[in-house]
């Protein structure tokens, strides 16, 4: 039997720095990257474009199954096309994050996106960013990471990120939206946000991202026997 393609899963709540860590790890190791949140965000946008109610489980799941997306390398970040048109900043907005967490609570939508995520497991390896990567999508991953940080710090980080992207943001409103989204993600019946029993946990409150990256790389080297030069 051949060894499965190695996977590192990175789960945790909104604004915890998973995206930054995952992009860094993928670049550092030369592995593929799965941004599973983008798939839920794209599903929500596609459903809204079609005038669907986000609670219409069967219709939204059909949209998820037929999702027409392309991830293309851009100058500094990935260009994402939905139905052939670039989605741009709207994909990353808090409003789209909120819509994504509504469709993500629907079991048929999660089922529709499951195989699409697993199909991205290709050599030399995959870094998988999300909420249920270690518990549901890749339960056999060789390394599972789960990041946390205080709610106040996560709101600050998300605020900085949106401002840097030239988008409007309000810190107090953002903190409330993130709290509501986290509660929905943690309380849903399918694939709720929670660490896998064999996940490595890290509270990143007050920690520079470079230290988080070092910690992850050290674990990857040790657990997956990846030859990494510090
Ligand atoms: O990570 P991101 O903020 O892009 O995710 C948007 C929403 O998509 C999350 O709040 C969550 O509801 C949903 N999601 C999920 N499972 C994943 C990734 C994201 O339910 N693996």
Q: What would you say this structure looks like, in words?
A:
The model has no long low-confidence stretch (mean pLDDT 93). It is built from nine helices and eight strands. The chain is globular, with a radius of gyration of 17 Å. Strand 4 and strand 5 form a beta hairpin. The protein is an alpha/beta fold and 230 residues long. The two termini are 32 Å apart. Helix 2 packs across helix 3 and helix 7 crosses helix 8. It has helices at residues 18-29, 36-49, 57-65, 94-103, 107-118, 133-137, 151-164, 171-187, 209-223; strands at residues 7-11, 32-35, 69-72, 79-82, 85-86, 126-130, 143-148, 200-203. The relative contact order is 0.22. The strands form two sheets. It has a five-stranded parallel β-sheet with strand order 2-6-1-7-8. The chain has a three-stranded antiparallel β-sheet with strand order 3-4-5, with no helix packed on it. It folds into two domains: 1-31 and 126-221, Rossmann fold; 32-123, P-loop containing nucleotide triphosphate hydrolases (Rossmann fold, 3-Layer(aba) Sandwich), CATH 3.40.50. The structure holds cytidine-5'-monophosphate. Cytidine-5'-monophosphate (C5P) is lined by residues 14, 36-37, 40-41, 97, 100-101, 104, 130-132, 181, 185.
